[in-house]
Amino acid sequence: MSIAAEITSVEEGRVELAVAVSEDAVEQAFDQALQRLARGVKVPGFRQGKVPTSIVMSRFGRPVVVQEMLKVSLSEWYEQAVVESGIRPIDDPDLALDDVPETGELRFRAAVQTRPQAKLGTVAGIEVGKEEPEIPEGALDAELERLRLQASRMAPVDRPAQEGDFLVVDFDGSVDGKRLASASARDYVVELGSDRLIAGFDEKLRGSTAGDSVTIEITYAADDSRQELRGKKVEYTAVVKQVQERVLPALDDDFAAEASEFDTLEELTADINERLQTAAQARVDELFRRRVLDAVVKEASVEVPEVMIQRRIGTILTQTASSLPSGVSFDTYLRATGRTIEQAAEELRPDAEMAIRRELAVEAVCEAESIEVTDAEVEAQVREDAEKVGRDADELLGEVVGEGAFERLREDLRLGRAVQFLIDNAVPISMEQAEARERLWTPNEEKVAPDAKLWKPGDAK
Questions:
Q1: Of 183, 225, 265, 383, which sits most exposed with the smallest number of CB within 10 A?
Q2: pTM (2 decimals)?
Q3: With 90 as the cut, is the pLDDT of residue 460 above it?
């Protein structure tokens, strides 16, 4: 084995490792460092990249090669030591290396803060409020109306255009009499009331009829994303070619047969009700899962290190920045929300800390209940996922193993089983009972927003 790691001390969440790197591994790393230097050095009489390592050694000396070796290999040896020792660092290590002997093992020390362990309180038999599934009022009618809109048709009308109508228009935009191709279109469909075209168009087109020509002046902002329109006053001429109204089908069996796989409106309505009931039950189950998990967290005790909170906040901010629409920078987003980066980070702190507490509690449940996931179970999950997405199972399994995701999936499945264990061992009570007990809590006890998102295995850590 090229790396040997021994935990020499544990104190207040910090671990010190004594690491020994075998002589063979050091020699190999030294040779690789020497070759890297040889590829980059320029020596008269030799082509770059073709300088003999013996000349590089004599030119730079051993100390320079050692520094090049440590620059790359020390972190790799530390990562191997982490795996060997089984510790779970949460921060960068403090590395201490006295010297690098010319022969024999290389030894160094690594002190690092590790992931804390939650001390569980009550786990089984916790009484948690659970609602009865309830379909929102008007949900059935809203879904039927959505289907009617999908099945609707457009019919020309000979009257002035009104809200909800669709107009087919040709329009041309010009600046100082010069036509702008980027501000012109033919047979463009405008839905009155949607404001999807250009601010001001809808208002000017209301009341127009087929054949009308409408002039609209729009002044664009100085910071408009389109350079050719930035700060410009554009005059649009829109010619209405046709006014159409949406014709909705009647709610009858013919509509059901056209809009769905059902033959009658009664069958379609029953299916919608069933799906709404399923969705309502899923929402109730999700809220119950969160309440169970938060109840377990409330009973547990753990100190969350500041570095974990800060890294989680950083992850959330990075995810937010990457999810912004194309062309919208994170600075622009912050300005639009009236916050600084510091304010945004501080607002995220409670959620970030609570998410970590949930994770640590679930990890503690895994240990307490000896929850494990076998290789065969991980592979079975990969194959199931492959079938769902229409992938070749062996190919996907190869990618999971090759990308190092096999162990991450194992951990996700393990945590998922722990969450299910907690749910299975919780005792549902009515929300009235739960709320009555909540009123007995002291004002300083933590309250969790009812719409807070449940952390689940696989969420960003």
A1: 225
A2: 0.72
A3: no
